[in-house]
């Protein structure tokens, strides 16, 4: 595996020239991407763009016909699915639900629920908690694997606006605390753009990629999502503890993107 030239962090996953077909239909073509440790990468695109197929290929769940996917030795992935249906009549507490996913004790469950901000749900019935609370429980489930890479498929669905902000702030804190890479799939363009290092815009192939500012101005992004989406993204402010150039590359910490006040 290579080392990122931008951050110096090791690459966790490298996808090169990926092509994937279902029957006679080409779903993905020539997809190339890299996710490094400590990096948040967001995957966006319209319905039918191949986002779920790409995620399933990275997870090893879907065979592909072209290209290759290389993972770091011993890579552990924590996956948060877009949907998980639980029988409404099955008596299942949050604690039991989490123990079904990993052989862990009550102390570890208590710790991970505290980490995602819902320790009070440990003995609650899964069917009785809200959609936003269940999203956090699913995130806790992914974290129990002690992952090097988190793959989060629509992590803020079924959540109101303030809840979405809270979820993406939590993802940022987890990245900082754990140093893991994060791949986020989301349809919420504005929220993704304010909470990511790099954006990959997918529509069967990678249309454009880079820092949010660069992607939002790219002609293919504008063609897919419209000029109003691009204009709204241009208003966002990036709050990570590092800066990017317009290609999405992380600038060295000792090279500020703006001169200090008074310089």
What does the model show?
The chain is 31% helix and 22% strand. It has 263 residues and is α/β, with parallel strands linked by helices. A six-stranded mixed sheet has the order 5-6-7-3-8-9, sandwiched between helices. A three-stranded antiparallel sheet has the order 2-1-4, covered by helices on one side. α3 crosses α4 (131-143) and α8 crosses α9 (227-233). The protein is globular, with a radius of gyration of 19 Å.
List the helices and strands and how they pair.
Layout: E1 11-22, E2 25-36, E3 40-44, H1 51-58, E4 66-71, E5 77-80, H2 94-101, H3 106-115, H4 131-143, E6 149-153, H5 161-178, E7 181-185, H6 189-193, E8 198-202, E9 206-210, H7 212-216, H8 219-225, H9 227-233
Parallel strand pairs: 3-7, 3-8, 5-6, 6-7
Antiparallel strand pairs: 1-2, 1-4, 8-9
What shape does the CA trace take? globular
**Main pleated-sheet profile:** 6 strands, mixed
Overall mean pLDDT stands at: 85
Total DSSP helices: 9
Order of helices and strands: EEEHEEHHHEHEHEEHHH
Task: Tell me roughly what share of residues is in helical segments.
Answer: 25-40%
Biggest sheet: strand arrangement: 5-6-7-3-8-9
Q: Which band does the percent of strand residues land in? A: 15-25%
The gyration radius over C-alpha positions equals 19 Å
- Report the count of strand segments: 9
Find the structural class using helix and strand composition: alpha/beta
Distance between the termini: 41 Å
Q: Spans of 5+ residues with little confidence (pLDDT < 50)?
A: 234-251, 253-263
């Amino acid at each position: 595996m290579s080392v990122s030239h931008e951050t110096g962090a090791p690459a966790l996953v490298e996808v090169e020239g990926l092509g994937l077909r279902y029957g006679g239909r080409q779903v993905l073509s020539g997809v190339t991407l890299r996710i490094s440790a400590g990096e948040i990468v967001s995957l966006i695109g319209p319905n039918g763009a191949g986002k779920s197929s790409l995620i399933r290929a990275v997870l090893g769940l879907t065979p592909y016909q072209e290209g290759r996917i290389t993972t770091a030795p011993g890579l552990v992935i924590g996956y948060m699915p877009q949907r998980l249906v639980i029988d409404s009549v099955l008596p299942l507490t949050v604690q039991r639900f989490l123990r079904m996913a990993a052989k862990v004790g009550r102390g570890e469950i208590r710790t991970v629920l505290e980490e995602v901000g819902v320790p009070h749900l440990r003995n609650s019935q899964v069917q009785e908690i809200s959609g936003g609370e269940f999203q956090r429980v699913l995130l806790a489930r992914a974290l129990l694997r002690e992952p090097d890479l988190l793959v989060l498929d629509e992590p803020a669905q079924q959540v109101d606006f303030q809840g979405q902000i809270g979820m993406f702030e939590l993802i940022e804190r987890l990245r900082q605390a754990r140093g893991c890479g994060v791949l986020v799939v989301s349809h919420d363009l504005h929220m993704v753009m304010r909470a990511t290092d790099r954006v990959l815009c997918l529509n069967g192939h990678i249309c454009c990629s880079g820092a949010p500012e660069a992607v939002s101005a790219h002609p293919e992004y504008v063609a897919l999502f419209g000029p109003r989406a691009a204009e709204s993204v241009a208003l966002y402010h990036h709050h990570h503890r590092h800066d990017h150039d317009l290609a999405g590359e992380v600038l060295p910490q000792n090279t500020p993107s703006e001169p200090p006040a008074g310089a």
